[in-house]
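Recap slide: MftR C-terminal domain-containing protein, sequence and predicted structure.
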Amino acid sequence: MTAYHFGDLACGDRFLADVARDTANPSLQERELLKLATLGVASADALRHRGVPDPAAVLAAETGVTVFKVAFEEWIGEASSRDFPHCVHDTLEQIRVLVGGG
């Protein structure tokens, strides 16, 4: 069994099979998008609660959700041998380059 690491959490092939099954099912894809949208709204609300004004709160929250989604897809990809934190770091670095900060 192959192990995939999410920080200290190791996930095996069954986890990847479940993810592959879920991404192949349109109703589960829709549910996943709804969860990500809810995460974005909750994150923006939490940032506002901490004093971050709009639109910065929304931009930061949606960027965080996008980074999570892209890094997660990279992490579970067949060619990936890296752990999740490295995938997140690389995704953030790609954003820095895109916006001219890298």
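The helical segments are 13-24, 26-49, 56-76, 84-98.
The longest strand covers residues 4-6.
(End of recap.)
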